Amino acid sequence: MIFQSYALWPHMTVAENIVYGLRLRKMDRDSIAKKLAAILATTKLEPLAQRYPGELSGGQQQRVALARALIVGPETLLLDEPLSNLDANLREEMRFEIRRLHDEYRYTTVYVTHDQSEAMTTADLIAVMNAGKIDQLGSPEDIYARPESEFVARFIGAANVIKGTARDATHVEFAGATLAVVGARLTAGQSAPVAIRQHEILLSTQPPAATPNTLKAVVTRQVYLGMNRDYMVETADGASLRVTTPTETAVEKGSEVWLTLPPERCRALGR
Predict the structure, then answer these.
(1) Segments forming the whole domain that contains residue 83
(2) Residue 150, in any domain of the structure
(3) Is 115 part of a structural domain of the chain?
(4) Are 64 and 29 contacting, i.e. CB atoms less than 8 angstroms apart?
(5) Overall number of domains in the chain
(6) In three state form, how does the secondary structure of 203-262 look?
(7) Which of 128, 154, 194, 268 is the most buried (most CB within 10 A)?
């Protein structure tokens, strides 16, 4: 198990921390030395072998914790939010490092995290937990592209969830428009939540010609984020939607806009 706080022994060197489990197993000295050399090379810790944890950065301490867990050849590796103490850049680097080590050693890993990027980067299978129960289980692509519940849609990828009323099995009335949707089969008259990602909504200052799933809205906020612009817009019935656009799409607050919600991206949620 790798703990959130790493739990390294401060009075032991990096090498001593790593081989602790092998010594408990009473492995002979030559075998320990060979395994230590291999894991130090894999985790890029060779120059730090004789340092103490207090002399290491957060990312280096994380590597030591990984090396200590891996050297004993575990059947299952458990990680409890192992990157939460690192800064954003180091977290991103360590996500790929954990995945690389997993691919090299092929152990089963159970990884607990609140960070969707960590889950998407490291996992083959994601279990989204809600109130102690699994809300949805699937591949990263399944969880992101085909959420089955409002909780999953909001938690993974921060989707807009439109609250409309089903007209029939595949159409939802919302803000004076009829939206064609995919996903869960609906019953006419039922409350019908529909998820769509912020970047999947097309925003235009001109009404699109004969395009399905089009809504009129007003810009209530616009933020420039460098790689894109983040908009908040309000529809005729007072609902707010977030829309992400390329930076060249610059529309002032208070402007009237048209939103196109591609039918294949509007996913009706079963719960």
Answers:
(1) 14-124
(2) no
(3) yes
(4) no
(5) 2
(6) EECCCCCCCCCEEEEEEEEEEECCCEEEEEEEECCCCEEEEEEECCCCCCCCCEEEEECC
(7) 194
pLDDT in tens, 2-43: 888 888 999 999 999 999 999 999 999 999 999 999 989 888
Is residue 118 domain-shared with residue 165, that is, in the same domain? no
Three-class secondary structure of residue 160 per DSSP: strand
- What number of H helices and E strands is found in the chain? 7, 15
pLDDT in tens, 221-234: 999 999 999 999 99
Q: Residue with structure tokens 């616009």?
A: 222
User: Would you say 56 and 67 are in contact if contact means Cβ atoms under 8 Å apart?
Assistant: no
Instruction: Determine, yes or no, domain membership for 211.
Output: yes
The rounded distance, in Å, linking the Cα atoms of 58 and 104 is: 23
Identify the CATH number of the domain in which residue 215 sits.
2.40.50.140
Structure tokens at 155: 């938690």
User: What is the spatial distance between Cα 187 and Cα 80, in angstroms, rounded to a whole number?
Assistant: 42
Q: Is 10 left (phi over 0), alpha (psi -120 to 50) or beta?
A: alpha
